[in-house]
Amino acid sequence: MTKNRNSYNTTLRTDLTRRLRILAAQKGKRQNDLLEEAIQDLLIKYEKDSQVTALSPVPKAERREHPRAEVSWPVRMITAQGLYEGEIKDISKGGALIQCSELPITDDHLELKIEIPDHLLNISASVEKVRLNLDESDRALPSYDMAVRFLGIDADQRKPLFNAIEQKTRTIAP
Hints:
alpha+beta, 6 strands, about 30% helix
C-alpha cells in the first residue's frame, strides 16, 4: 500500500462492478482511481446538504443562536432498535453534540435521557439529528460525533436544564 491509503473492502452489485471495469478500460484508468473519484463526488454532494461533514479544525461560520458549554454529561439514546449510550461533549439551549461509540441507526427523532451529575438530574428530551462526523483521532476504535437539535423538553425539566447550561457557560467564560 502507498502512503496515505487504507484498505477498504466492500461488496458491490455485479452490474455495477461490470460497468466499472468497462469504464476503467474505456478511460484507461484504474478501477480504484474511478472509485476514489466517485467517493469524493459523493462526499461533496452530501456535505453540501449538511447531512455529513468532514472533520475540520475550525468551523467556517458560527450560526448558533445560543451559547454552548463544554460538558461531560452521560446520555442514553432511546430508539426502536434499543438503548445506546454516549456522552454529551457540548450543549446549548438549542441542541447538543453527543459522542458515542455505537451509532443509533434511525432517521426518526431520538429520545434522550441526559444525566447532569452536578445537579442529580435526569432530563428527558426529544431531538433530531443535524450532523454526523466520524472521529478517528487517537482511538483504537472510531467514535461518532452526532449533533442534535432539541425538539421538545418536558416543561418541568426545561428550566433546570437551561439553568445547568447557563451555569456551565458562566464557569467557562472569561
